[in-house]
Amino acid sequence: MNLDLSEEHLMIQQAARDFANTECLPGVIERDEKMRFPKEQVLKLADLGFMGMMVNEKYGGAGLDTLSYVIAMEEISKVDASTSVCMSVNNSLVCWGLEAFGTEKQKQQYLTPLAQGKKDGELYIGAFLLSEPEAGSDATSQQTTAEDKGDYYLINGTKNWITNGSSASVYLVMAQTDRSKGSKGINAFIVEKNWPGITVGPKENKMGIRGSDTHSIQFNDVKVPKENRIGEDGFGFKFAMQVLSGGRIGIAAQALGIAAGALERSVAYAKERKSFGKPIIDHQAIQFKLADMATRVEAARLLLYKAALDKDNGRNYAASSAMAKVFASETAMWAATEAVQIHGGYGYVKEYHVERLMRDAKITQIYEGTSEVQRIVIGRSLQ
Ligand code: CAA
Ligand code: FAD
């Protein structure tokens, strides 16, 4: 594995770092407190080409590789995981899913503006609707139905916990057409949020990533034209699983960013804060914490780059993305907790950021497949 980043990768890293510090950092505490969606930041990310990073230029994307994407995701997540989850869902679940499996017409109509993050100058992003109130990890047991009515489908049911739920214009919806066929009876559809019969529930009041807008979405006799189905009849579950393998690389990058942000803040603080006549970084107990954090952050980065390179080089990445996600998210939770400890009482208040990193870290162990689900995926790859 060649780990030397190219000039282009280093430029993307610098651009993302600058963006995070100049555009995301100001106001990040207030957005978290007030649960305010980072619309201004997402529009600026769109201008940078970061909302459709891996999409071919002919569909409005930046035409970059997965490694570029994870490098950018890490930098933005160091500062603002609410903004980076929006970026991750649009890039790796929505845009990648449409580019890999959509028809030419679907790509022209939906992918092109989604990859640009804008349509007619307005925010234009997507959401991925798989989970339901009674079906999260056990995604095949979903209850939402898509009844085949000839030239259209009729969707009924409720999706839960949908990231970008109210900000998105386009939903990728998984629903059951023929329950008797199990996972092969599920279809995936492109649905526009403003179609009749769709109701967006209230914004969830969350522990972390509070700026991100998470909503339940109800479907009541929503008519979806047949041409908006993705792939062949019954392809919906495989679509979701394949898309999630890529999505997990994005969330692993988010988790890595949170862990690396916790480390950077902790090193800076430990050099400044004095106790017993010396900077706390000179106490071996603190130095060992930082050493362990740095080691685990580096290991998470290596696993992440490996998964990104597997995807870029056409190798199977279902297991490597699961490994990257489970390791990076557990590192994020642990490193952010250590960061609070290193900051002492100051770590417990908002202005030092690390308590937010700790709250934000937790979700990376839950969404896009819990840590237990990642272990199921990895375990099955060994059988
Ligand atoms: N690629 C291609 N096909 C795949 C696949 C993959 N990665 N994983 C599974 N499949 C196929 C299987 O081969 C199988 O097909 P066949 O019947 O033809 O062999 C079919 O899909 C069913 O697979 P399983 O029998 O393995 O399915 P399962 O019911 O045992 O579930 C699971 C497996 C891994 C637990 C899966 O249900 C899962 O990933 N659950 C977690 C769901 C999840 O990650 N949700 C995230 C929602 S999005 C989100 O969270 C976004 C956000 O927060 C920002
Ligand atoms: P459950 O599946 O009920 O799991 C409960 C516990 O049991 C977990 O610890 C789980 O790991 C464990 N468990 C379950 N089955 C097994 C098993 N077989 N073996 C071992 N342990 C098991 N979903 C979307 O579709 N789109 C989104 O955009 C989206 N965004 C989200 C944003 C947020 C903030 C949150 C909180 C969730 C989001 N989700 C989204 C849903 C998320 O993917 C699910 O919450 C997740 O997949 C877990 O499902 P669940 O909550 O139903 O937990």
TrEMBL record:
What PROSITE patterns does the database record attribute to this sequence?
Answer: ACYL_COA_DH_2
Principal EC category: oxidoreductase
Give the EC number(s) listed in the UniProt record: 1.3.8.10
According to the UniProt entry, its GO molecular function terms are: acyl-CoA dehydrogenase activity; flavin adenine dinucleotide binding
Keyword terms, alphabetized? FAD, Flavoprotein, Oxidoreductase
**InterPro entries associated with the record:** Acyl-CoA_DH_CS (IPR006089), Acyl-CoA_Oxase/DH_mid-dom (IPR006091), Acyl-CoA_Oxase/DH_mid-dom_sf (IPR046373), AcylCo_DH-like_C (IPR036250), AcylCo_DH/oxidase_C (IPR009075), AcylCoA_DH/ox_N (IPR013786), AcylCoA_DH/ox_N_sf (IPR037069), AcylCoA_DH/oxidase_NM_dom_sf (IPR009100)
UniProt domain Acyl-CoA oxidase/dehydrogenase middle: residue ranges: 127-222
Is Transferase among the key words of this record? no
The Acyl-CoA dehydrogenase/oxidase N-terminal domain covers which part of the protein? 6-118
Report domain Acyl-CoA dehydrogenase/oxidase C-terminal positions. 236-382
Which cofactors does the annotated protein need, by name?
FAD
Which family does this protein fall into? Belongs to the acyl-CoA dehydrogenase family.
| Protein name as it appears in the record | Cyclohex-1-ene-1-carbonyl-CoA dehydrogenase
Species assigned in the record: Parafilimonas terrae
